[in-house]
């Protein structure tokens, strides 16, 4: 050995003559010696044909000469240097299965980090690096196999002087225990990508692992998911699209080499919502309690809704199609909507369709008149009224029925007067008209109760006749006395024998004759009569008088020409037989 001086056994040499012919072949013994005897005189070369492992083979032959007459053995000391290079063989295997891995690339870096060489494992998972100088090295994995974790730490090794064997390095790689998923969100019909959809990734226990949102390309990528089963849950859909109702299950398997691609289709919403707001046309106040029907294009009622205290009613989940909104119950005091409101639910609607429906207050009103007796409250039939507007124009004329009622319909907004034009017999006519007003939005008929008092006076008509021939008797004088005997009227019959007393208050009276017609007996007994409340006709009293059976004569004597009365003239009164009755 060149450095240590140790003897080297087993080195084989050839002894070649000048013509390179092998004369003999020897191998060093345990003492490092080999003896060649009986060499003829001449020039030779000692050629090392087999060196020892770990040693450099002798590069140049050693020349020597056998001379004539040599008495001593020629001694040749041959020094060999130990090898100063070595080789490494890498074997790359799967950690679990020990299956060899082809195509893994390594760099061999010296202790200063300089890349000495770069190798890739073959189909047997091997890569050999030869002629590495003595020194410290690192084996750095620069390209791993798909589905395998790249070696994170370098493998250190040393090439020592005199290495006789190839350094064998077995490098194990674990399969990847994580994977990636790329979601692509598209419209089911058009395949247009959908940006802004939010997903949760949940593990088998339902725990949220991460949350992602699709980008402008409709994509969202989730990296470094551990091996296991997962669910993709859509948390926020896009406006106008149905949210995914079922989660999408997927699995990350050990050693996955590619990103798991999940294409998820969303359908556009095929239903829509309608929000109705019902308001007063004039003051815009919300109207609660208005009932609408939603009818499809065939007139079939799909649903029925009623506005709330905010005047709103919502109809949800209407299928795509054409509809009309029909008001079926308006509020009291408001005109019902005459025409339906058409609308259409379109696919992919993102917002509720809103309608503001205005209702006008009713601008006409009704009046119901009830005519009753003031005292008994009994209904009065056949009372005739005129309804007059603020200018005095008669706009209606009505007559009460047997229930004392009369209705006037569809009076326009304004002020009116109810004028009684025909009063029932026995009742006082209404002195003043009844004023009333029809206001906008009146919901019920205006009730007018009109009371009439019975007439509380009456009339009496006296007819004075001759008892026998019934001739009318003029100039009979009567007193009307009340129950207390007080004279309330004094009357005289006319040439028709008649006398009237009007406006006698209700009560009991006596007709007392205070002066009979000439030639008739004066009525001895007064005639009692009664004026009753509500009398519709004059009380007729026929009073008969008997002619007197005695009489008086008054003679008046006058001058024929001057008509001057003449005093002192004496007459006899004789009866039919000429007998003097008196003087």
TrEMBL record:
It comes from Bacillus cereus. SUPFAM superfamilies: Cna protein B-type domain (SSF49478). Pfam families: SpaA. Gene3D superfamilies: Immunoglobulins (2.60.40.10). InterPro entries: Ig-like_fold (IPR013783), SpaA_PFL_dom_1 (IPR041033). The lineage of its organism: Bacteria, Bacillati, Bacillota, Bacilli, Bacillales. Keywords: Secreted, Signal. Belongs to the serine-aspartate repeat-containing protein (SDr) family. This is Adhesin. Residues 1-76, 86-169, 179-261, 272-356, 365-448, 458-541 form the SpaA-like prealbumin fold domain.
